[in-house]
Amino acid sequence: MKPIRTWVLIADGARARVLENQGPGRGLHAVPDMTFAAEHAATHDLVDDREGRTFSSTSASRSAIDARKDPHRVLKKDFAKALADVLSEAEAQKAFDRLVLVAPPVTLGDLRHALTDHVKAKLAGELAQDLTKMPNADVPRHLESVVAL
Asked: What pLDDT does 66 receive?
């Protein structure tokens, strides 16, 4: 019988890596070419100094356009979408049988929202923690309550 391949995506809004387990007691190992980092620019490079202006459709007066979107938040959502696309492609190639998501709560929500139904069907668990800076060898003890490795 073929061992169940479990992928563990460890991510935050700017970096991610995928670890793989190929059966009980076999530990977690980095998946080659599955380490990602987003290049987030400084805020002053992402936004204009002044808000834009617009004309009202009912009068000749002008008002400022309210820029309510945090540019860093937008980049983090885009990064989550890019990760979801990578996972979707890997799922289509049958690279994993189960998936565990490990990310801070906001990133976890972004990922959940961006995942395809096919990838969601393979979700075996989630952990709302930031383990991106943790060495791979220390990750399994944090996953004991989520999935058996």
From this structure: 47
Quick: pLDDT tens for 49-70. Answer: 555 555 555 555 555 544 567 8
Query: Mapping DSSP to helix (H, G, I), strand (E, B) and coil, where does residue 53 land?
Result: strand
* Matching residue, tokens 């937008």: 74
Calpha distance 119→60 (Å, rounded): 51
Give all domains of the chain, ordered by start, each with its CATH number: 6-46+70-143 (3.30.420.60)
Give the residue from 86, 76, 106 showing the smallest Cα distance to 13: 76
Rounded (5°) CA angle 6-15-113: 65
Say what the pLDDT of residue 24 is.
85
First to last CA, the chain: 17
How far lies 48's CA from each of 6, 52, 63, in Å? 44, 9, 16
pLDDT-derived band at 23 (thresholds 50, 70, 90) equals confident
Say how far residue 106 (Cα) sits from the centre of its chain.
10
* Neighbour-count burial of 48, counting CB atoms closer than 10 A to its CB (0-12 exposed, 13-18 middle, 19+ buried): exposed
Cα–Cα distance for residue pair 3/98, rounded to 1 Å: 11
